[in-house]
Design brief:
By secondary structure, this protein is mainly α. 76% of the residues lie in helices and 0% in strands.
């Protein structure tokens, strides 16, 4: 399904050399498409794991703030960190 969409993009690209200084685009091989899709999958997987880790970290820090951070400087650092995590999620959602 995705491979067909990529092939359509390759077919629709200008084949007169106007889109690239090297000349016409060659149709990608199946191996090239597989390599591209594998790279996309790996990158997406890393992004999902990172967001899961941030969400978990946010919950732990919030719990610590509620149940037992006594020193004001530690509390301040924890609150700043929570704001940074929230900013990340706000900016990530704005891009979508």
């Amino acid at each position: 399904m995705i491979a067909n969409r990529l092939e359509d993009l390759w077919k629709d690209a200008a084949d007169d050399g106007a889109s690239t200084p090297r000349g016409p685009l060659a149709a990608p091989t199946e191996d090239e498409i597989d390599e591209l899709l594998d790279a996309w999958f790996q990158e997406r997987h890393k992004s999902i794991e990172f967001e899961m880790l941030l969400r978990r970290s946010r919950k732990v820090i919030a719990w610590l703030l509620i149940h037992g951070v006594d020193r004001p400087e530690t509390r301040g650092r924890a609150l700043r960190f929570l704001r940074e995590i929230d900013r990340y999620f706000d900016s990530a959602n704005a891009e979508e």
